[in-house]
Structure formats: C-alpha cells, structure tokens
Amino acid sequence: MKINLNADLGESFGAWKMGEDEALLQVVRSANVACGFHAGDPLVMRHTVRTAQAAGVSLGAHPAYPDLQGFGRRPMKLAPADLEAMVIYQVGALMGMAAAEGGRVTHVKPHGALNNQACEDAVLADAVARAVRAVDRELILLAPVLSELHRAGERAGLPVAGEIFADRAYTDQGMLAPRGQPGAVLHDHDEVVAHVLRMLDAGGLVSQSGKVLPARMESICVHGDNLGAVESARHLREALEARGWSVLTLPEVLQR
After folding, report:
1. Average pLDDT of the residues of the chain
2. What is the greatest pairwise CA distance in the chain?
C-alpha cells in the first residue's frame, strides 16, 4: 500500500510564471524539475531544488526536446546520439543544482512530446534509457505503465517506476486518450479521485470503455499547470491516505 505522487515543477522562465510550485510541493512527494530545454532557467531550477529539499520531496530531472516556444510539446525527429547527449546534458545540469543544495537527483522523467514519442517508439525509448544509464545506472526511470519507455528502462537494467495519470483517460490500448476527445482530460476533483482509485483497486489501467489492463503502478502524476491543480492534488492525497495508502517519495516506494 505504498504509492508516490509526482508533479512537473520548475517550469517558470525568467519573468514568466507557471503553476503554484510552493503549494504543490506540500502535497506531492516527488518533483520532476524542468532542465531548461522546454521550460525553466538556472535560477528557477536552483530555487525549485531548494524548495523541494526543504519540503522533503525527492528530486527528478525532467528532460525535454529543445523547444522553449512550444513548451516541449512539439514532436521532433533526432538522431539517437543527439538525443542521448541532450538527455545527459539536462540530467547533469539538475544534478549540479542538487549538489549545490546538498541534495541528489534520484529519478528521471521525460517531458511532453519526448515522453509521448518514447512511449510508442522502442528505438527512441532505448536511446532515452541508455542516456539515463550512462549518467547513473541507479537513477529511477519514471515511465508510463505498459509503455515502450517502461520496457526500455527494464531492458537497460534501470530501476523503473510505473506511472499513471490522475487527470487523463486511457484508450483500450493503454495510451492516453487524445486531448481533443470528449472526456480525455478530467477536471472535477471527485472524478479524478474516482478514476485513480478505480485503477488502484483493479490493479491496472481502466480504459474509457471499462477495459482493465493489468500493470504495476508506483506513481501518480498530478499536473501542476491545470486550474485548481493544488486543490485537486490535495483532495487526491487525502482520499488515498483515507484508503490506507502511504504516500511516499519515489525512492521510498521502490525501497531504494
């Protein structure tokens, strides 16, 4: 009955502000910190690391395609060597920030289009996993359950944590329902809680049609840039704890 709550944080940039990081860090137990390619900058990264450390939240690098204007959500096609180097570069940058604050990075979670493409493309997923392993084979790869990225992490011998999304519906194939489809994104707090508990009770993804796809789930992503994100995350954590779930950091869930 151990579970992790994670959120993508540190996504402000210069004078532009994104999300309510300080409030969300009081609810989640792991932070995926933007590394400057899709969002974030050195000052934002260091501040986010410092705030997460103070909250006792485990740190993860959130590498992305080099796409500030598109917030890392536009698909790209890169040679595996280029991609590996970019992931290593971003993870290393956050490791330096963490070290400066007396902490350490314990996981990696790709962002946006990079994550989405790696979930379906085994070659791309293997490149991401190789990059993470090249930095530190003890780093946890946080990857969506039943994805090529999850399988690539296992092939690379990395510790892998299976992730589900609190506010996103799933297809019968185990993929996220396209955002443009009705019901693909859940906004009501009670609906989010019901969706998560349904999957935990079933022991796997539950699609929009009701199909159950068995999977091991260690972490739940709550999006920090949605309207009412903090309230929704708090509501979910309270519901989980009321059901007897211990909400822990990612290393604690994997007992590392």
Report:
1. 95
2. 48
Q: Is the pLDDT of residue 256 over 60?
A: no
Sign of CA dihedral 134, 248, 65, 80: positive
Number of domains in the chain: 1
Domain that holds residue 178: 2-253
Type of residue at 120: E
The tokens describing 149, both together, are 């990225």
Q: What percent of the chain has pLDDT over 70?
A: 98
Q: How many CB atoms lie within 10 A of CB 248?
A: 19
* Contact indicator for 7, 224 with CB cutoff of 8 Å: yes
Please spell the DSSP secondary structure of 191-222, one letter per residue: HHHHHHHHHHHHTEEE-TT--EEE----EEE-
Reduced to 3 states (helix: H, G, I; strand: E, B; else coil), residue 61 is strand
158: CATH: 3.20.20.370
pLDDT in tens, 163-172: 999 999 999 9
CB within 8 Å of 161: residues ≥ 6 apart: 4, 107, 140, 141, 142, 143, 218, 219, 250, 253, 254
Contact 8, 35 (CB under 8 A): no
| pTM for this predicted structure | 0.96
Q: Which uninterrupted H or E stretch holds 8?
A: strand 2-9
How far is CA 43 from its chain centroid? 21
Q: Give CA torsion, residues 184, 153, 250, 3, to 10 deg.
A: 50
DSSP E strands in 35-165: the ranges are 58-62, 105-108, 140-144, 160-165
